[in-house]
Amino acid sequence: MKTYHAILLTLLSLLYSCQKDQIDTSPGTVTVSVSEVVFEGEETISNRAATPNGQRFDPEAHIQTETLDLPNGLLLVSELKPAVLNQNYPQSLKDATRAVSDTSSVGAGIRYRLLVYNSAGNFVTERSYVRGQENATPALQLDGGSSYSFIVYSINSTQDNLPTVTPATNRTLTNSQISVSGTQDYMYFRQNLTVTGNSVNQLNIVLKHRFSQITTTVDASITGYNITALTSNFRPHFPTSLVNLSDGSFTRSGTETTSAVNYGTLGTQVVTSQPTMINSIAAGTGIFTIPNITINGIELTNLTPFQNLNITPGVRYNLTLNIVPTDENITYLNRPAVRINGRIWAQHNVGVATTLPVNPATITQAYHGNYYQFGRNTIVAANNATTVNSSWSNATSATAVPRNSWNTGSETAPVRTASDPCPAGWRVPTRTEVQQLLASVTATNRGDFATGNANFGSGKVLTSRRRADVIMVWPSQGLFNVASATPPTANPMDNRGSAGHYWTSSASGNNLWRLRFASDAQDISELTNDINYVAQSRNVRCTAI
Predict the structure, then answer these.
(1) Is residue 129 a part of any domain in this protein?
(2) pTM of this prediction exceeds 0.70
(3) Between the CA of residue 52 and those of 47, 48, 195, 280, what are the distances in Å?
(4) Among 300, 325, 350, which residue terminates a domain?
């Protein structure tokens, strides 16, 4: 038996020796092509999908969300999500990972460089290629039977600006480096391969993005308005990195700065950026800032939607920021209402049936409501009247009609009184509240604004500046004026169809404040004639307590 084993070992040794002697050391041709492009960091995410015991992958661990309260009745709802997480949140990301391998991200004409090192780590040669034109580069021939390390790098550019490898002489695999800008799309590939002589050896290059990319979308579509100005950036961001070509690792360098987001064309409700390169440290240090954004004339500055972002190198992200108005159409205390700039307003004048549509194409007399004198809750005329009724009073003194009859509080902290004509839970608004409303809306005309006792069809349409479907209609119902007499006497209807007149609860000494609008403007004006104006009769539009 020992003799048999010895003979067998001898035969095997001879066979191996013969095969070794038959290795073809003649030159072999190496051809190259970019077969795939991936985001390196996304492989880490996909590996985590393979959880033990068949547990479902939890995408929430990789999604970061924040909500920021903005001025002018807006919210900014932000979400940063790796692009590898598809909309359906698959149980396993193995298939999803394949889906994000995106050869289209390295299009025709992109330049890349191939470096070759022998098994001792010494530099052999290099070639520069243009994707789709690889045959235009001189053929690469290497010794058959020899092992080589193939290094490929690119910055995803069609320009002839590939970083230069250093050192220029005495180059080895361990000392070869390139310097890349933090805004360049640095990609890397390495493969060890033994060349087969007298044959064509195919090198299938899989380039991996090594920096982070973030595509930012700002969506104001729910407001109905366009984004007309927008700047934003990410930090920390480093201007350069020194890359070790032996393994593609890099060291960030330069003074920490920001990476600006390029949105291109503005003036639409949804704005999407070009991918922003981020050369930053990942451990929860990322900050996203919006120095300026303008929506429908509303300018917001110095916003920080995200702090402590986890931005992983080699991962691409989608950052979505939704501009959400707090302005909305609501029902409040069983009445149609709107919330504009955080304040709730009734959709109808006092005395109007709350079952009527809130935005009529044609305004009718049913929308005008009741007329009241300042500080009183007695109806002195109905919506279709041309004269006041017997409840009208010519009392005007501060004793008879205290100037705090509708507000015993202050301008900033109003207190409803028993004389308030509004329903329970509502009150006559202050001058300040009406001014804030006018600053939060755009006003357009409905109807012809012609004076006439039978012209009920004119009014102002107040549209939220944050949300285009939040609309209020205020009829131009005129007022019942008074004659300049002592005591004053009531006059017939005045300005119906051509002007709107609404009380506020505010008084300045003996003087009163009211909203008046005509076809061309609207204003909050102080009524300085104490006697006549207290006796006038106007409509009331309520705000919530």
Answers:
(1) no
(2) no
(3) 11, 10, 40, 32
(4) 325
